[in-house]
Amino acid sequence: MTEQLSTPSIQAQFRPQKLLNLAATTWYVVTTIGQWAFGIYVIGFYGKSTASGDLAKWNQVLPHGYVKGDWMGNLVVGLHVLLAAILVLGGPLQLLPFIRRRVPRIHRWLGRIYVTTALIVATGGFVMVWTRGAVGDFVQHISISIQTIYIILFALLAWRCARARQFDQHRKWALRLFMVVSGVWFFRIGLMCWLVLNGGPVGFDPQTFSGPFLTALAVFTYALPASLGILELYFYAQKAAKRGVITVVALLIFILTALMAVGIFGAIAGMWLPRIG
Ligand code: HEM
C-alpha cells in the first residue's frame, strides 16, 4: 500500500484533490469570519436597540424598518432581523465535520432550528418587500423574492433527505440551502468588494440604489445564484478524474475567496463596525 502510494503517478493524482480541499477549507474559514462579523453586527445593532426599546433606531439603516402604530409590520421586521442572527452565526457551525461526527445531536438540533428559522426569515423578508417596500428597484425586489422560493424548496429537501437518512443527498441540499440563505450576505460583501476595488460607487446611483451593477449583482446573487453554480462545480470536481478540471475549480474558489475577503473587510470597516461602534 505504502509502495503504491509512493509511485509518482498515484502521488500526482492526489495533489489536485488536496488543492481542492485546501481551497474549500480556506473558503470556509473566510466565510465563517465574514458571517460571524455580520451576526455580531446584527446583535450589536438590532439586538441592542430592540432590547432597549429604541425601535426607531432601526430606521437609521432600514428606511422601512419601524413604523409607529404598525405593530404587526414592526413584529415582522423585528423577527426578520433578529432571527437572521441565528442563520449567520449557526450556519457555519452546521458545515463543521467535527460537530457532525462527534456531537451529531447538536448537528440535528441546530439543523432543525436553522431550517425553521430560514423558512420564517425568508417568508418574513418576502412580506416586507411587498407590503412595506424595500430599497432598490423592481428587478432587485423580484430577484430577492425568487431567492425566497429557493430557500423554502432547499430547506424542505435538506430536511426530507435527512429524515430519510439519504445523507449524501442531504449534504448536497444542505449546502445549497446554506448558499441561498447566505444570499443577502453575498450581496453585501459583493457590493462592498466592488466599492473597495473601484474606490467608490460605479455603475449604480447610490441615491436611488439602482443601476446596472446592482441589477447584475441582484440577479446573480438571488435569482440565478452564482454561488450555486460554483457549488455544483465543486461537487463535480470532487468526483472528477481529470487533474486539470479539479485544479481549475480549486483556483476559481481561491480567487473568489480572495474577492470575498476584500468585501468582508469593506463591510466590517465601512458598514458594520461604524453602526455598532
Ligand atoms: C434568509 C436569509 C436572510 C437573512 C440572513 C436576512 C437578513 C437581513 C438583515 C440582517 C437585514 C437588516 C439589513 C442591515 O442592517 O444591513 C435584512 C433586511 C431586509 N431583508 Fe433580509 N434576510 C434574509 C432573507 C431575506 C429575503 C429572502 C428577503 C425578501 C424576499 C429579505 C428582505 C429584506 C428586506 C426588505 C429588508 C429591509 C431592508 C430594505 O429596506 O431593503 N430578506 N435582512
UniProtKB/TrEMBL annotation:
State a single Pfam family of this protein: DUF2306
Query: Transmembrane ranges?
Result: 20-46, 75-97, 109-130, 142-162, 174-197, 209-236, 248-273
Source organism, top-level taxon = Bacteria
Q: Answer whether the UniProt record assigns the keyword Membrane to this protein.
A: yes
Keywords (alphabetical) are: Membrane, Transmembrane, Transmembrane helix
From the Swiss-Prot or TrEMBL record, give the protein name: Putative membrane protein
**Lineage start:** Bacteria, Pseudomonadati, Bacteroidota, Cytophagia, Cytophagales
